[in-house]
Amino acid sequence: TDLEVTHWWTSGGEAAAVAEFAKAFNATGNNWVDGAIAGGGGVARPVIISRILGGDPMGATQLNHGRQAEELVEAGLMLDLTDIATEGGWRDIVNPTGLLDSCTVDGKIYCVPVNIHSWQWIWLSHKAFADAGVDVPSNWDEFTASADALVAAGKTPLAMGQQSWQSSGAFGVINVAIGGLDLWTKINVNKDAEAAAGPEMAKVFEAYGAARVLSEGSNVQDWNQATNMVITGEAGGQIMGDWAQGEFQVAGQTAGVDYTCLPGLGVNEIISTGGDAFYFPKNDDPEVTAAQKELAKLMISKPVQVAFNLKKGSLPVRGDIDMSTANDCMQKGLEILAAGNIMPDGNQVLSADTSGQIEDLMVEFWNDTSMTPAEAQAAYAAIIAEAD
Amino acid sequence: MTSVSIKNLDLNFGSVKVLKQLNLEIDHGEFLVLLGASGCGKSTLLNCIAGLLEVSDGQIHINDKNVTWEEPSDRGIGMVFQSYALYPQMTVKGNLSFGLKNARVPKDEIESRVARAAEILQIEPLLHRKPAALSGGQRQRVAIGRALVRDVDVFLFDEPLSNLDAKLRADLRVEIKRLHQKLHNTMIYVTHDQVEAMTLADRIAIMKEGLIQQLDSPAEIYNRPVNKYVADFIGSPSMNFLDGDMSTKGKFKTGGTEIDLGNYEFVDGPIGAPVWFGFRPEHVIVGEAATSQPFSTKVVAEIVEPMGSDTLVWTSIENQPFRVRVDGQASIKTGDEFLLGFDPARASIFDKENELRV
Amino acid sequence: MTSVSIKNLDLNFGSVKVLKQLNLEIDHGEFLVLLGASGCGKSTLLNCIAGLLEVSDGQIHINDKNVTWEEPSDRGIGMVFQSYALYPQMTVKGNLSFGLKNARVPKDEIESRVARAAEILQIEPLLHRKPAALSGGQRQRVAIGRALVRDVDVFLFDEPLSNLDAKLRADLRVEIKRLHQKLHNTMIYVTHDQVEAMTLADRIAIMKEGLIQQLDSPAEIYNRPVNKYVADFIGSPSMNFLDGDMSTKGKFKTGGTEIDLGNYEFVDGPIGAPVWFGFRPEHVIVGEAATSQPFSTKVVAEIVEPMGSDTLVWTSIENQPFRVRVDGQASIKTGDEFLLGFDPARASIFDKENELRV
Amino acid sequence: MTNSSSNTTVEMTGPRGAKPKRALSPRNIMIYGVLLVVACYYLLPLYVMIATSLKGMPEIRLGNIFAPPVDITFEPWVKAWSQACTGLNCEGLSRGFWNSVRILIPSVAISILIASVNGYALANWKFKGAEVFFTILIFGAFIPYQIMIYPMVIFLRELGLFGKLGGLVLVHTVFGMPILTLLFRNYFTSLPEELFKAARVDGAGFWGIYFRIMLPMSIPIFVVAMILQVTGIWNDFLFGVIYTKPDAYPMTVQLNNIVNSVQGVKEYNVNMAATLLTGVVPLVIYFASGKLFVRGIAAGAVKG
Amino acid sequence: MAQSTRPNRLFRNLNAKIAALPMIATALVVFIGFTVWTIVHSFTKSKLLPKLDFVGFAQYERLWGTRRWLVSIENLAFYGISSLVFSLTIGFLLACLLDQKIRFENTFRTIILYPFALSFIVTGLVWQWILNPEFGVQNIVRSLGFSEFVFDPLYNADVVIFGILIAGLWQGTGFIMVIMLAGLRGIDQEIWKASRIDGIPSWKTYIFVVIPMMRPVFITALVLIAAGIVKVYDLVVAQTNGGPGNASEVPAKYVYDMMFKNQNLGQGFAASTVMLLSVLVILIPWAYLEFGGRKGDK
Ligand SMILES: Nc1ncnc2c1ncn2[C@@H]1O[C@H](COP(=O)(O)OP(=O)(O)OP(=O)(O)O)[C@@H](O)[C@H]1O
Ligand SMILES: Nc1ncnc2c1ncn2[C@@H]1O[C@H](COP(=O)(O)OP(=O)(O)OP(=O)(O)O)[C@@H](O)[C@H]1O
Ligand SMILES: [Mg+2]
Ligand SMILES: [Mg+2]
């Protein structure tokens, strides 16, 4: 059966990962019809949602799990996967279990988590630091200290794309690294506006402001262009989620040799467990429904998880598989995951609306140098106060 | 039995009343000309008769049938437009047969009717041309032909000649006259060319602001206009008007001049009120012959306008401009003093208050 | 000393020759009318004189100064256009003074000139209105005023009255005539209205296809047209032409009819060749009086067109149509037989080959 | 003696004939100078697109964008047309091209047909209330599309047309209607009303007059409408992305996908080739129809 | 007197009414219905799906308290006014130049008009490329020796809107020029002749006579530009995607992002309602000028 699958994985590493899904699905005698939408989630989500609303749904679609699909589920537009989840014992195999919780509404499971992506990474270019004549830093403080040398060597210390989710994501990373998990939880989970306006948070904003200075001269749009600056040694480093890993891999670089990755900015080794999940819009055609379930099962199956996550550079959603072929960075991630140093992802705790507002604020701060960290903090606190 | 009869016709465009309680009866075979200044509602009336405008009130009967709500094509009328309105993409033949085809007239019948019309109008050689390849006069003839083939009783013409140059206009005017003499159907003809009106009409209806001012034979309208508007409107050069009064019974007095109205035919007998004394420039007699007229006076030629066949002399009587049409060969020059005279019986006198003929 | 003199003027639009080696001399204070069919090059000639078109060859002198290469504003001319061409966003006063302001004429001077022009044209009350708030005649007067304030010697008029209705046209015609009598400057006036041409002109230039056919006084052009084109063009109703020959010296023969040309003034004496015998409908005499004319014959009235003041009777001589203008009161009816007569001395005869007057 | 003075010889001194003109008068230099500069400004992007699309990536990285291509390669074109990837689809623009064609033809035909009939009804068969609807329609031309996107999704869903070709055709017909109707109405109004009257007297009905009289006389305006619709629909992005699905994406959406699917570095040459390929249809139509379009715009847009 | 009955009004012109049904439906359902639907929902707290739980003006309050929206409005105002002014002046000046009886008029006109055939997506991409500091204009000028030269409008929040303006003008002025040219050609030639005879230099004639006469053309052009401005979306998306930061955000994009990205329909609807109001503010005076002023003239 033909099953159209929409997603926004169009960069080199991502596309290679998707191909693993497709390969596996086609092997079952079905046909994966690829519906890639370029431009990132911001472009793709409206298309996906309007198609679901418009009564012409695709067979399956990527969405960040979390609150994005809440209302669609509530409106009864999504296929209930509880039966196959029970059958496959997802609750037992999915690690951390929080991932499955995000797929659960009223006790029913509506999505398949496929990977864990964590934001808390900085990627450093060995070449850049070699050119600048300094050692590759091992944490955020060293990194900022070496910035001058990088600038002197004509490098951009910190690569940063212009899209709002990137600056907002970097903020989250700095938030956890500098402010610690408790502060983060207070603000993001409990929506504590006072904490958001407090002195601890002020430090975070100071650090964020410092990072802004380091990124001057980084004139690229897309995240992978920024990653490319790190790959080519034009930039010292980039704060980016673990999906950046895929780009290094496609470029044939080796962790530890050509680049270094520091989880939690080397300060606070913790990773968030956001990630991608697939939803299956309801469909009248029983054949399609069967195919949908087939795909759902497939996606969480062991071999597919391994193949997919190796290409994607993300962590698998099940703890019971062998990822020994994974590279350095991924291993680091797996260790942290195993140690339970995890936190929820922003998408799981904040509504799309609030995330959007924060993104707007962060990207504005990042680009408008006349905005002081204090001003940004005030605006931030206001958003948190309104958050639902 | 009347051919077209219009009863209490009202037509409004929004709040503008264009035709107001208009009544008109036209006999079979009559040639009626609607004449009037621009915007007085002539075309509007014609369009109402044709059914191209929906009347606001009143009725229209054609051949004693109430057609007020009929479609234009069912009224038994044919219409010829100022701009010809030929279908540019069809040949002449196509133009002529379009209406018949629409009415599902059999093919042979169409052929024979087209042939007959073409013969009458002498456009046989043109049948396979398109309108763009015709001269103005030929187009006009095709437009007439389009009405002709439909074998209707009533022909409506909306200024059919006004797009043509003077010479062609004169020729086609005669042709239309000939056509009417041949066909004997009813024709309603709109124009604002007086010469056309006078030469073609059995009766003329002079319109002003949606009302018919006078409906009479051309001669009557020319000689006995019912009001000052009609008098002024008809005739070129237009009628002279002297401002004065008739306080002395039977005499018209303006300034120091008195004109005896002895043999003037009053409508209701003389009145003693301020009046306009109207007199046509072409009825004035000059030179020696003037002395034999009931009224004569000496005047000075102020402007002399030779027009070839005639000469128009501008002079004044009691400081009121007075034009005189004299022969083209006359030798009056600007500044000359000369004698003019006329017969007050040929005058038209209007009450100054309501401007009606007295 | 001439006011405007045009020497061997050529004007081509691309490959189309519109004016061909045209020569024209106009005296000071003369009123010259250019008359001709549409497209014959009248406006083109006027534009050349004004400097609005660049001539292809030849010279133009105004007041004995060669202005061929001068700017229009330096030629000492004023021009009045058919569409008035008033500046719509300026008041009448603004229209009148715009050119002067631009020429840096002192303020008082502008005031006085505008006041004078406004007085002459009687448009003082309108000075602060915009053109949109003026009637056609008033606009025309403002357009004339714009030429007037510039104190020029030569006025050029391009069909200044043709956008107006008949009555207004007649009035303004007289005003222009009065203006000319007052100002005495040179006026060149384009029209295709014969009556305007005849009444206004000191001399008329009849043009055809970029050539001047005849340049003469109105009376001369009316009475002695130099060729058939001019004869046919001038006069309404137009001249009758009988097709025949003069093989018998001094006699015109068509069909069985012979007309003795005894007192006809030949240009170069009689010729023995096929000719057109032209005769004006208004010079024909009917009824008893016809017998006293050198030539008379009996004819049948085919169509009678009463026009109020006159009546046009269509008849034929030797199967060739012949129109006769008779008095409006005449009682000839369609089908009547009547006597017509005329004096061949008033005829115009043209060689059939080159159509020139003989 | 036809010409009263043709045989007079006139002495002629001084200026005669046309005033001599210097081809390089200051005025001409200025006018053409300005025009040339302007033309350069307008042509520059086109030039850059073409030049870039013919270069290889190394040349782009080294040289500047205005330099003419040294090593002309058609690789980027081939890639843009048939190899560029979005996700797993590596069919380049070609698929989008055919989708666009498939969308274009019915959309253009139906929207023009409906708008012309509307315009005709408005111009010639005025009925009560028609003007009101027309005014609403014209106002509608200025309503930002964003307002209507969402209700349109629901509307199409209710009609069962969402994601179908028919839905997109409907969307284009609806949103093209105001300006096209205006265009047709103005044009039909400018045709002599008497023709319409004559046809009614001749007994032709609503459709008879439309097909037999009006249509044959309106070829120019149909051409203009077609140009407007072809370019408008071809260039549409918003509706294409929202109301279709990936395998029916029109070329503009495909273009956006290709340009935004960055794999490592941006392949500017491929992007430019893709851009040019997408623009080629409307460009060809404009260059080919040039004067006609200008005339139509003048007739439809500028009145009074 | 035989009185035939007056036919039912509804059935007169029945064919015309049937033919106009698509238009009537569009007007009522789409333009009125959809708009009303949107306005009603702007008073709700609809998130991903439209729901009718009303919250009064809360969405509007938030709207006007959002910096991004204010920046969008500011950008739109700036972009709008500049593009109005520049389109009209440049369009008019170009039209005047082309009106000088020049050679190759057709060629020049086609060159100036062709960008109009290209979509905003294409326009945005190509200008993004030209204005790219690494490869585009800045690079060229630097390579000529001015190594300090900076021209990176798309990467500088203060001037990014100019970068968009350059592209927007490039795309649209040709069309305005064509309209102006048609307007100029529509002016009575005799006006030109009259002014030449009055000795008025042509620039003065343009300013004092021709421009005032072209008022209707200017208004038409103005409305066309204005309608385009309010809708400006594709260009920004393709050229900067609102960046850097939020510096080049526009209302249409705000609406779109709110509705689909932030999944806050109510907010998006409120923003689009404000856009609609701004359109009405432009349109109603125009409609009044165009139709109300001289009723029955047409
Ligand atoms: N469709 C219309 N809407 C409003 N008013 C109209 C309409 N048609 C005509 N009128 C008005 O009705 C009046 C009469 O118009 P009509 O066309 O009948 O005049 P007319 O006598 O034929 O004039 P003309 O000699 O110029 O043809 C005019 O004042 C005109 O302005
Ligand atoms: N700009 C032009 N380009 C080419 N041919 C022209 C141009 N202007 C006029 N003509 C041609 O020159 C001839 C003379 O035109 P002109 O306007 O002088 O005629 P006219 O005698 O004034 O006619 P009308 O009485 O209609 O005003 C016409 O055949 C016309 O077609
Ligand atoms: Mg009329
Ligand atoms: Mg002329």
TrEMBL record, chains B, C:
Residue stretches making up the ABC transporter domain: 4-234
Keyword tags: ATP-binding, Nucleotide-binding, Transport
InterPro entries the record matches: AAA+_ATPase, ABC_transporter-like_ATP-bd, ABC_transporter-like_CS, ABC_transpr_MalK-like, ABC_transpr_MalK/UgpC-like, Mo/tungstate-bd_C_term_dom, NA-bd_OB-fold, OB_MalK-like
Domain of life from the UniProt record: Bacteria
CDD domains recorded: ABC_MalK_N
GO MF terms held by the record: ATP binding
Similarity-based family: Belongs to the ABC transporter superfamily.
PANTHER family (alphabetical): MALTODEXTRIN IMPORT ATP-BINDING PROTEIN MSMX, OSMOPROTECTIVE COMPOUNDS UPTAKE ATP-BINDING PROTEIN GGTA
Protein name: ABC transporter ATP-binding protein
Species for this entry: Maritalea porphyrae
Organismal lineage: Bacteria, Pseudomonadati, Pseudomonadota, Alphaproteobacteria, Hyphomicrobiales
From TrEMBL, chain D:
Location(s), subcellular: Cell membrane
Topological type in the membrane: Multi-pass membrane protein
Entry keyword annotation includes Transmembrane helix: yes
Transmembrane segments: 29-50, 103-123, 132-153, 165-188, 209-234, 270-288
Domain ABC transmembrane type-1 per the UniProt entry, residue ranges: 97-289
The keyword Amino-acid biosynthesis appears for this protein: no
Top-level taxon in the UniProt lineage: Bacteria
Keywords: Membrane, Transmembrane, Transmembrane helix, Transport
Family: Belongs to the binding-protein-dependent transport system permease family.
Protein name per the record: ABC transporter permease
Species of provenance: Maritalea porphyrae
Upper lineage: Bacteria, Pseudomonadati, Pseudomonadota, Alphaproteobacteria, Hyphomicrobiales
TrEMBL record, chain E:
Gene3D superfamilies with a match to the protein in the record: MetI-like
Protein name: Sugar ABC transporter permease
Domain ABC transmembrane type-1 stretches: 73-286
Pfam families on file: BPD_transp_1
Organism encoding this protein: Maritalea porphyrae
Transmembrane domains' residue ranges: 20-40, 76-98, 110-130, 159-184, 205-230, 268-289
Membrane topology reported for the UniProt record: Multi-pass membrane protein
Family recorded in the similarity comment: Belongs to the binding-protein-dependent transport system permease family.
Keywords attached to this entry: Cell membrane, Membrane, Transmembrane, Transmembrane helix, Transport
Source taxon at top rank: Bacteria
Compartment(s) of residence: Cell membrane
